[in-house]
Amino acid sequence: LSCYRRLLDFIIQEHFPSIAMNDSNRYLEFFSTVVSETANLIALWMSVGFAHGVCNTDNFSLLSITIDYGPFGFMDSYDPNFVPNTSDDERRYKIGNQANVGLFNLSKLLQALKPLLDPRQKQLASQILEGYGERYYIRFTELFKTKLGLLGENEDDNYLIAFLLKVSLLC
Question: Which domain holds residue 109?
């Protein structure tokens, strides 16, 4: 456990300077940051039609950067079933499933972090993970609103985005 703690402290110290090393909640802050940044990264992928192709846990970065580009692709037209990986017969990594795979990978990260968390922190970490979908959706919506030139907050914007994505399936 001490080796694991040293490794995580090193990662935080080297790559997450905004997290204070003397903070007893540093692992919780770390997890919250990774959850938020992963939601942001996948929303960015979706906003440009990028499909990773192999989004398994070893191809996700704690720094929320895209790594292991091998089989990836960009959609020519919107298709939530687009899979650039020809060996993915089950379509697990289809572009429309990327956000869910991100959630799965984050749940595995939380499982690895749990031995370092006290009971209260475990509960808070679970709540952070539960908020991933909302964080992803908010960022996804912001990016699409920007692409469409929609300014301000209008409740109908979300319906318009969903409608345009659905209509593009018919084209």
Answer: 1-169
**pLDDT (0 to 100) of residue 171:** 66
What are the residues whose beta carbons fall under 8 Å from the beta carbon of 99, sequence distance 6 or more?
A: 39, 42, 43, 46, 133, 136, 140
Q: How many domains does the chain have?
A: 1
Residues of the chain with pLDDT under 50: none
Respond yes or no: is residue 118 known to be catalytic: no
Q: In whole angstroms, give the CA distance from residue 82 to residue 66.
A: 18
Query: Which of these is catalytic: 9, 58, 76, 118?
Result: 58
Q: What is the phi/psi pair of residue 74, to 5°?
A: -115, 135
Cβ 4 vs Cβ 116: under 8 Å: yes
Least Cα distance to 139 among 44, 20, 15 occurs for 44
- Give the span between the Cα atoms of 37 and 43, in whole angstroms: 10
